[in-house]
Amino acid sequence: MSGGVETTAAWLADQLAEGAVTSVDITQRHLDRIGEVDERVHAFLHVDAEGALAQAAESDARRARGEVRGPLDGVPIAVKDVLATRGLPTTCGSKILEGWIPPYDATVVARLREAGLPILGKTNMDEFAMGSSTEHSAYGPTRNPWDLDRIPGGSGGGSAAAVAAYEAPLAIGTDTGGSIRQPGAVTGTVGVKPTYGGVSRYGLVALANSLDQAGPVTRTVLDAAMLHDVIGGHDPRDSTSIQQEWPSFTEAAKAGSTGDMTGVKVGVITELSGDGWQAGVMNRFNESVELLVKAGAEVVEVSCPSFVHALAAYYLILPAEASSNLAKFDAMRYGLRVTPDGDPSAEDVMRATRDAGFGDEVKRRIILGTYALSSGYYDAYYGQAQKIRTLISRDFDAAFASVDVLVSPTAPTTAFRLGEKLDDPMAMYLNDLATIPANLAGVPGISVPNGLADEDGLPSGFQALAPALADDRVYRVGAALEALHTAEWGGPLLDKATGLEGVSS
């Protein structure tokens, strides 16, 4: 296989279909790459080499019998460690679940297996998906392949770093307030948050039930669309799963790859720019908007005034739901148990276990959420945050009445240095400023690589948002912009990554 592992999932799928390569060969090459670079990147918490190769061999045998399960049968994938995987550890980046091996698969994982994708392993993440830098993992931080002294975004930095470092051609992430899109922006990868309910949450260890959504992490928009076609669709085991027929996202991405934006009306969100936004990030964003105009799009400015309150509302709603969800980690049923000396009560055991098992950021959000839900404060904080959420949804509805998609930079800055914001939670939270509104309203969004910022030569991202159920629009716009950018750059942006120079692939 020429090109080592620096290829797309779509290209690998074509090579498999032509009989030019085997799944075992592809999977072994990626396992070799993990062995070469992951000691420095730390994208993975668990690598299942034996299992992945066995699944790859099964794929090759199926193909030999003419029983291919789909276009991605045989293409390996990495899975964020917040999704239950039967027979493989699922820790959510936390000591409190260290060593836990689920007896079942999340629906997303089950669909990957059914489609024949070998699972390389589980990727690192901020503990229980609480963070924007993957520095809050109990097992150590993941590093950005562009610059190993910088963060890969969060909470799904492991999935984004694995794809950016060519350790996996595909990955699954989860997005509660931007945890797929923001890592995509700072690692030069593609990240998609589907419409809420478009991908099953069954088996996804919940951070905030009304916000969490699993989605693709890839190197191209077409790869993301192909993966979305595999994992999406109704699941009767998830009460929030949408019952409807979805269009082919693969076809939407292919339609957009012509680069023609004629007839598409694009709204630039006024509130997601200005003070605090890195100049180089805004330069790349404005250049991308100009490319869309040249490709035939009509671009207008759109005001969404409630977006300025999204961050505050989110950091009341999310901690409140997290406080409730994490109450089940009580040392009584599964996970870590710490027993104090003497004759401790059940409450003493719970207190000691939660103190030892949860990290500082998790404790911070549990305390904040419990306070927001407490008697006397519920209406003043949580209730008001839900009202803001309604206003944000109304802003989206008003905007989409006049435009097809809304666009903004994905994140205000490029990747910051490890440790730079660990002691300043508010500075950390601001990284999700542009991505949070989509989660509060349940609409789909994509982050596409947007070029390198002038100040530091690091990648930035371009975000496109569409109405709920119109995920095909973000694929069309994302693929069009990707095609326009590729023509400008002369090749994929990831070819310019320098953090792992000198490592063979």
Automatic annotation (TrEMBL):
Query: Which is one GO molecular function term here?
Result: transferase activity
Which InterPro entries would you find in this protein's record? Amidase, Amidase_CS, Amidase_dom, AS_sf, GatA
| Enzyme class, UniProt record, top EC level | ligase
Question: What does the UniProt keyword field contain?
Answer: ATP-binding, Ligase, Nucleotide-binding, Protein biosynthesis, Transferase
The highest taxon in the source lineage is: Bacteria
Query: Catalytic activity, per the record?
Result: L-glutamyl-tRNA(Gln) + L-glutamine + ATP + H2O = L-glutaminyl-tRNA(Gln) + L-glutamate + ADP + phosphate + H(+)
Q: Where is the Amidase domain?
A: 25-474
Catalytic positions are: K80 (charge relay system), S155 (charge relay system), S179 (acyl-ester intermediate)
Can you quote a single GO CC term? glutamyl-tRNA(Gln) amidotransferase complex
Identify the PROSITE patterns for this entry. AMIDASES
Q: Which GO terms describe its biological process?
A: translation
Report the EC number(s), separated by commas if there are several.
6.3.5.7
Segments spanning the bilayer are: none
Entry-linked Pfam families: Amidase
Please give the function described in this protein's UniProt entry: Allows the formation of correctly charged Gln-tRNA(Gln) through the transamidation of misacylated Glu-tRNA(Gln) in organisms which lack glutaminyl-tRNA synthetase. The reaction takes place in the presence of glutamine and ATP through an activated gamma-phospho-Glu-tRNA(Gln).
Family under the similarity heading: Belongs to the amidase family. GatA subfamily.
Q: How does it assemble?
A: Heterotrimer of A, B and C subunits.
Q: What is this protein's record name?
A: Glutamyl-tRNA(Gln) amidotransferase subunit A
